[in-house]
Amino acid sequence: MAQATLSMDDLLAQAGEDVKQLTAGETINGTILSVKKHEVLIDLGAQGVGYVPRREVGHSRNYGIGDEVTASVVDAELDNGYSLLSLRKAAKDRGWDEVAVKMESGEIITVVPYDANRGGLLVEYEGVRGFLPVSQLSAEHYPRVGSSDKDEILQRLNGLVNKEMRVRILDADRKANKLIFSEKEAVKEGIAERFEKLAVGDSVTGVATGVVDFGVFVNVEGIEGLVHISEISWERVNNPGDYVKVGQAIEAKIIAIDKDRLSLSMKQLTQDPWLSEVEQFTKGDKVEGTVTRITPFGAFVQISPAVEALVHVSELGGDGTDPEKVFTLNERKSFVVLDIDKDNRKISLSLGK
């Protein structure tokens, strides 16, 4: 006589009280059987096999075969006989308690961002998903680019994905499901100690982290510095990118120390060529020069590689004379040296006759 097919309920009844029927929402312990790209299978012992889709695995931990895990039951029995589980939800429930402890203590923790957008980095810690805003990145990682270079900002942030970062928890609200991290807070104490050791006039070495229209941002051992465009070179700089590239090592002199930033000068570590070149000129000399800029108050003229002089509008031969009607950019003209002010690095010219 053929043996009757037993249902799952019959099998559970025969197994007695040792096998407890799973219910949605409960947590259960098991051992990982396999880890694949889109799923994880978990051995639940007498309660069968659990199936965890990739979206429910989470980002804060890498799992391996044989690992003991705790999962949350989403659906007790799927059509294939597996139980649908979530590792992420179980971790999240426990993770909020850990988040509260870390925030209270102010402890520095290590996280690994799993994605990025233009606003910052997406981070998961102990199963709880959070955010690390751009504004809370350290000087080393802050994407200093032009305000319009949104694609470059995202590219810089994507470069931090899957890399370990030391952070502190800045804000946590379990009810609102809000978790904010800060890298700046994690490095603050070390930076404060470094600041105390620095002084105006010191020479420092750093790495260019951003090149913008008004200068170059430099990371000096975790401290942010700025080389203003006027302090890049003794010659006139129109585009900082012509002198410095992101990632380039920079040597500079500290010319001011602000609350949280250094003002730096690259050019002050080199000799000012103006001081040597100006020695060839004396008052009354006739010189030739190239018109480099035309303004309402006169024109600037390059009379040597490092020396630029001014022809004031009052020297153009009458009241109300428009410099643009007298000069053309890049033309060469003859001039007479009216005055040399070495203290203020100024030379005044008049039109030659």
Topology overview:
Elements: H1 8-15, E1 27-35, E2 39-43, E3 49-53, E4 68-75, E5 83-86, H2 87-105, E6 109-111, E7 115-117, E8 120-125, E9 128-133, H3 150-158, E10 165-173, E11 178-182, H4 183-196, E12 203-212, E13 215-220, E14 223-228, E15 249-257, E16 262-265, H5 273-277, E17 286-295, E18 298-304, E19 307-312, H6 323-326, E20 332-341, E21 346-351
Parallel strand pairs: 3-5, 14-16, 19-21
Antiparallel strand pairs: 1-2, 1-4, 2-3, 4-5, 6-10, 7-8, 8-9, 10-11, 12-13, 12-15, 13-14, 15-16, 17-18, 17-20, 18-19, 20-21
Identify the quaternary structure here: single chain
H/E series, N to C? HEEEEEHEEEEHEEHEEEEEHEEEHEE
Count of all domains: 4
- Alpha carbon gyration radius: 34 Å
Which sheet architecture does the biggest sheet show?
A: 5 strands, mixed, barrel
Strand fraction equals 35-45%
Q: How many beta strands in the DSSP annotation? A: 21
CATH topology of the largest domain: OB fold (Dihydrolipoamide Acetyltransferase, E2P)
Weakly predicted, low-confidence segments: none
Global outline: elongated
Q: Tell me the number of helical segments per DSSP (H or I, 4 or more residues long).
A: 6
Query: CATH superfamily of the largest domain, called what?
Result: Nucleic acid-binding proteins
CATH class label of the largest domain: Mainly Beta
Strand order of the largest sheet: 1-2-3-5-4
Characteristic key phrases:
353 residues; alpha+beta; OB fold (Dihydrolipoamide Acetyltransferase, E2P); five-stranded mixed β-barrel; 6 helices
